[in-house]
Specification:
Blueprint lengths: L1 E11 L2 H31 L3 H11 L11 H18 L13 E6 L6 E3 L2 E4 L3 E6 L9 E11 L2 E11 L10 E7 L3 E4 L15 H13 L5 H35 L2 E5 L3 H5 L5 H7 L1 H15 L2 E5 L25 E3 L5 E3 H29 L1
Parallel strand pairs: 8-10, 10-11
Antiparallel strand pairs: 1-5, 1-7, 2-6, 3-4, 4-5, 6-7, 8-9, 12-13
Helix pairs in contact: 1-3, 4-5, 5-8
Length: about 375
């Protein structure tokens, strides 16, 4: 089984490497915008695409030196943008030289990339100092890479790797159900809250002060850009801390449980609520589910998404009776059978039981097919 994975490393560039990066980024943006303009003209006039691509390569052959900036990767990216714009009926966007993040895409098969302890060798930029916290497996294939300046003087390199994974499925012994909770991130069927893994915007006061100062600054002035850099650094600090905690939460669930049940949610719809909107965006629950999914696949565990319209908060986890008309204000679930329980805990238990039923059906169908 083959799987696509990304390996991201923090890198530190010297002054020479930074000037090279800026020059290469300028070339990349110029090629991208020029190619997008040419493509738009050809679509309008309905000319032959193969002829104009050859003409374009001849015209801008000096920029694409064959070592770092790949015309092919830029051409593929432009095609994807045009297809998306056609399906969504939106306008084509062009790259900007000033805005962050600054990304350079390049195709790997033509280059010799070398990784060692705290060193990454990349052509044209040379040997880069970086934090190589884990090596790329030997049997894997590097497909492409991106060098990105996330905020000013903050560089990362991202490798897209095709890896061979042969997970051995674990026999399920224990299961957990996770119910989404806006104030706690999640409530588990083991009556554990996700407060330890939830990260609120601890730089909120600092960011609000900077925003007030920005309103008094002249747009695009030196002071304006200085404050913008500070604001981006505060935001980046929160994002990195949140991502780290979500990795810890997903690792905890995958290590301790064989079956993980999660409800399918429309988070955009929840975010429209005035009271829940801010917490919904800060929780990053969708990213948490993605982490759970790929980590469970690697360890041979089972990650199951319960159907969207399954009434987990309206079913009694003890007797199974459905109670209609329960609103969000009712935080305790009371049933005629005598059960009095927290609403989120009741929903988490129901999600766990539903996930186990879905897993049994899935395994039964597989065994039935093998017999046939």
């Amino acid at each position: 089984m083959r799987e696509l994975k990304s390996y991201i490393y923090r890198i530190y560039l010297t002054k020479k490497q930074k000037t090279k990066f800026d020059f290469l980024y300028f070339q990349n943006v110029f090629l991208f915008n020029k190619l997008l303009d040419e493509k738009e003209k050809r679509i309008a006039t309905k000319d032959d695409e193969a002829i104009y691509v050859k003409d374009f390569i001849k015209q801008y052959k000096e920029l694409d030196d064959g070592n770092f900036i790949s015309f092919l990767s830029t051409y593929k990216m432009v095609n994807r943008i045009i297809e998306k714009a056609k399906t969504n009926d939106s306008a084509f966007f062009r790259k900007n030289f000033i805005k962050y993040p600054k990304k350079i895409h390049f195709d790997i098969p033509f280059f010799n990339i070398k990784l060692s302890k705290n060193r990454i060798f990349v052509p044209r930029l040379g040997e880069l100092k970086g934090r190589v916290h884990r090596l790329i497996p030997e049997n894997s294939l590097i497909l492409s890479a991106i060098i990105e300046e996330n905020i000013k003087n903050n560089y990362y390199i991202n490798f897209l790797v095709e890896e061979r994974i042969e997970p051995v499925k674990v026999i399920p012994h224990n299961a957990i159900g996770l119910d989404y909770s806006s104030p706690h991130l999640f409530v588990s069927s083991e009556n554990d809250l996700g407060d330890n893994f939830k990260v609120r915007n601890f730089n909120e006061e600092k960011i609000s002060k900077i925003k007030r100062r920005l309103t008094r600054c002249k747009f695009a002035s030196k002071n304006y850009y200085k404050l913008k850099e500070k604001e981006e650094k505060f935001f980046d600090e929160v994002v990195r801390k949140r991502r780290f905690n979500l990795h810890l939460a997903s690792l905890y669930c995958v290590k301790n449980f064989d079956v993980i049940g999660v409800e399918t949610l429309d988070l955009e719809e929840i975010a429209h609520n005035k009271k829940l909107g801010k917490n919904t965006y800060s929780n990053s629950y969708d990213k948490f589910c993605k982490y759970l999914n790929y980590k469970a696949l690697e360890k041979g565990k089972y990650f199951i998404k319960v159907p969207k319209y399954f009434p987990s908060s309206q079913i009694c986890s003890q007797c199974g009776v459905l109670h209609d008309g329960i609103t969000l204000d009712q935080r305790t679930f009371v049933c005629d059978c005598g059960l009095k329980i927290n609403r989120d805990l009741n929903a988490a238990v129901n999600i766990r039981e539903k996930a186990l039923l879905m897993l049994k059906e899935k395994l039964r169908k597989k065994n039935y097919r093998k017999v046939l």
